[in-house]
Hints:
Bound molecules: magnesium ion
Largest sheet: 5 strands, mixed
Number of strands: 15
CATH class of the largest domain: Alpha Beta
Number of helices: 11
Order of helices and strands: EHEHEHEEEEHHEHEEEEHHHEHEHE
Amino acid sequence: MVLVLTGENLKERGPLLSGGKVKVVEGGDTRLGSVLNGFRALSGDLEVVAVHDGARPLVSPATIRGTFTEALASGAAVAAVLAKDTLKEAVGGIVEATPDRARFWQAQTPQTYRRDVLADALERFGSERDATDESQLVEKAGHKVRIVPSSYDNLKITTPEDLVIAEALMKDRTGSSLDTRAGFGYDIHRLVEGRPMVISGTTLEHPKGPQGHSDGDVVLHAASDAVLGAIGAGEIGIAFPPSDPRFKGISSRRIVEFVLERVSEAGAELISLDVTIVAEEPKIKPHYAALKASLASAFSLPEGRVNLKAKSNEGLDAIGRGEAIACYAAASLRVPRSAAP
Length: 341
Ligand code: MG
């Protein structure tokens, strides 16, 4: 992909954006000049070339696919919408004609071409600097340009009110395509002498620590299972079986990294975590702030979206006798509707 940038954008963002599959080049002083610079920088093996305005961020995959399919079949395709308003042709403020609106389309981008078609048009008419899009050069060169019906929300953001409309459209799309899901997790580990007291991604001074194949961090384990639960991805024991010697003594932060990768693959977003530690010892309350900060950092969440609390078991059962430590966790995530029907 070639990204054509001008002025401040090129200076400030160019170095950040270039690399991988993206090449950044300098724009021209007109739209056509920018298209020419971008076209020259394309790699040689592309069969089809699409030109898109950076000011149209709301373009849908269907519109992009539509122009590619049509360009491959017929050579040139332009995304467009039918004119909504009645059109008037006027000279000096006086209406001279009211053309038939049904014949008028408003051109958008992407405008997509077979490479040879666009190359021919740019070579013959690329010096006509007042062309407002390159498809008119393609027409002039005698190629048929097909209309691909697009949608009105593929708007070009040029004035302040466009920004308000675009924000409303984006909010509407996000709201309608994501579900909020909850997940629940639980973990318990025996406390034994001589193990480090690893909890919530940090280590506390204590004569005992959780026994376990990994570092035995009940908070990160319960929270990880809660997160996997919300995306329907099972539990951490499947990916990190205690029988596998490769995972002996690993930091539970690695387990969390694995879990966050699954979240990202699912197109989901972690919103919040709430955990309850159950322990007779060590005393957790003096460490609330540190444990909360470290939990937030492990899951890359702002601290405001993490809650951590602790209960003793009132001297009852194994936890009450100080022989074990447990944790319950709840997670909420935004999950794409299509990925989790
Ligand atoms: Mg565990």
